[in-house]
Amino acid sequence: MKRIAAWAALAPRRNHLMIARYPRPSAAININRREAHHVHHFAAAAGPPADAGGNDRYVVSRNGILLPWRQVRQQFRPLDTDDDCGSNSSVVDTNLILPDVDAPMDASTLLQVLPRGAYTTCRTVGNGARIYQFDYHVKRLARSAQSILETITGEDKEKLMANTNHPRQHHRTPSQEEIGELNIVDEAWEREMALECIRSTLEAFCAKYHAEGCKVDGNHCEFRIVLLATWERKDEAGGGNGRKHPFQSALYCHVGVLPQSPAEDESTKKHVQVLIHGHGRENALAKDSKWVLDRKKLVNGDGDECSLEARPAYEEIILLSDNGELLEGTQTNFYVATEDSIVTADEGVLYGSVRDSVLRVCRENNIAVELRPPTLDDLKCASGVFITSTSRLVMPVHEVVLGDLLSLNEEDEESDAELPASYSYPNCETTERIRQLVRRDVETHSTPVYGREE
Questions:
Q1: β-strands 368-371, 333-337 pairing
Q2: Separation of alpha carbons 53 and 106, rounded Å
Q3: Rounded distance, CA 150 to CA 143, Å?
Q4: Is 320 within 8 Å of 327 (Cβ atoms)?
Q5: Segment holding 370, helix H or strand E
Q6: How far separated are the first and last CA of the chain, in Å rounded?
Q7: Count of CB atoms within 10 A of residue 408's CB?
Q8: Burial letters for 348-365: b for 16+ Cβ neighbours within 10 Å, e otherwise?
Q9: Regarding beta strands 341-344 and 368-371, do their DSSP bridges make them parallel or antiparallel, or are they unpaired?
Q10: Is 311 strand, coil or helix?
Q11: What distance separates the 2 farthest-apart alpha carbons in the chain?
Q12: Three-state secondary-structure class, residue 182
């Protein structure tokens, strides 16, 4: 009863957003006049539809209620050095979050502006009709939230601020008793809230940008959905002061059009390069929004010529363990393939939803899997290399630039072999087979946005 009551209190009122079912690929969105009035009331507050391409069109909601972008910018303004929530505002470009601007934020910027928490990125399939690996994402969201809270609970404010680069760090961490009252560690709460948030936010996106039948600018599309589970002080969110438990759960949902990856678009296939550079994440068990900022430092570098910013030809940066083993990308899982097997790390990495699909299709199709970090020797003998992520699914890698591995090899006194700058992998049958199997797996492991499909 407690869980039901909590959900009822937080669930959005259906008359705030349109209640029409999200359309099948061939159907147009059906909005009656009364429902449309409420949708466009919120859309108008967030500003007019963008005239440019789909990549600058975003909407965001909190616990299912659409937030105007101006409100987000005003509520989460650039932080002062004396702000209770932290003093790391220099990490975020303040030009992106000016309070009087109505322009939408992309997910990366929003995760830097909102309070620190657990996040996950999922996608739709079937032209917006289903959510790929939805239950997997919900379970990981709850596990990540629990891991973040366990990691930072009990730390004093000074230590907490010293250990994070997130500009919107919470003013203090909840006690164990307070954690027990937070829904963000409850998979059942998150599943229902997440599905409701996704439904209403997708509907708001389609109404705001006049999308019909899962089409934007006349083209069928899929959506990229980012969920952030965090906690906020009740007095800041209008819940009053003096409560026994001053924190409350919040689930933010950000929706935008999913860009088509080169692996999916036959007409724009490109030579995919990755760079080996940097070390693994601090807490691989949790998908922490703090990682967005850690990744930003890796990508932009500090005058580092190996950064993605300096050399935009790199699709991804592959991170190393302390022993020089290959762990994962900053946004992807990493695999080395032979003629009949693959090697991928099992420890020190975040378990991605597409990684789950890869391991499943390999089991079902007798493709051997070695769960260990790939090494330099594996790269030398490999038939192919690939990376996986929500947007890319399975993306073949054509060239691995050794980067930091070259430096480690030079420091190794026992190694007298001179390494090439990179290894190339033109075509790999194992990678292509897995790519096709995962594409089919996507269709069978997706959750309809609106219950059972007819």
A1: unpaired
A2: 13
A3: 11
A4: yes
A5: strand 368-371
A6: 32
A7: 17
A8: bbbbbbbbbbbbebbeee
A9: parallel
A10: coil
A11: 75
A12: coil
**Alpha helix (H) residue ranges in 58-186:** 69-75, 107-113, 134-152, 157-162, 176-180
Instruction: Report CA torsion sign: 289, 283, 322, 401.
Output: negative
Token pair for 347: 């420890």
Q: Nearest-5° angle of CA 360, CA 331, CA 150? A: 85
Query: How far is the C-alpha of 128 from the C-alpha of 130, rounded, in Å?
Result: 6
Report residue 307 as tokens: 């950064």
- In the three-class reduction of DSSP (H, G, I as helix; E, B as strand; rest coil), residue 248 is classed as strand
- What does the alpha-carbon distance between residue 20 and residue 452 come to, in Å, rounded to a whole number? 15
Per-residue pLDDT of the chain (454 residues; tens, 9 = 90+): 333 333 333 333 333 333 233 333 333 333 233 333 333 332 333 333 333 334 689 999 999 999 999 888 888 765 443 344 433 334 455 555 555 577 899 999 899 889 888 999 999 999 899 999 999 999 999 999 888 887 766 554 455 444 555 545 555 566 777 777 788 888 888 899 999 999 999 999 988 887 665 666 667 789 999 999 998 877 655 555 545 667 888 999 999 999 876 555 554 568 899 999 988 777 777 787 777 777 777 776 654 445 445 555 899 999 999 889 999 999 999 999 999 999 999 999 999 999 999 999 999 999 999 999 999 999 999 999 999 999 999 999 999 999 998 888 776 656 657 889 999 998 899 999 999 999 999 989 999 998 655 4
Give the Cα separation of 138 and 194 in Å (integer): 8
H/E run at residue 287: none
Do 357 and 133 meet the contact criterion of CB atoms below 8 Å apart?
A: yes
φ, ψ of residue 83 in degrees (nearest 5)? -65, 140
Q: Give the DSSP H/E element, type plus range, for residue 314.
A: strand 314-320
Tokens read off for 279: 């070390």
Task: Tell which residue, 127, 182, 119, 123, has the closest CA to residue 150.
Answer: 182
Tokens of 72: 């987000």
- Long-range CB pairs of 90-93 (<8 Å, 24+ gap) are 90/167, 91/165, 91/166, 91/167, 91/293, 91/296, 92/167
Beta strands in 127-245 (DSSP E): 130-132, 215-216, 219-220, 223-233
CA atoms within 13 A on the CB side of 240: 4
The β-bridge partners of 336 are 343, 385
- Specify whether the CB–CB gap between 430 and 342 falls below 8 A: yes
Residue type for position 52: A
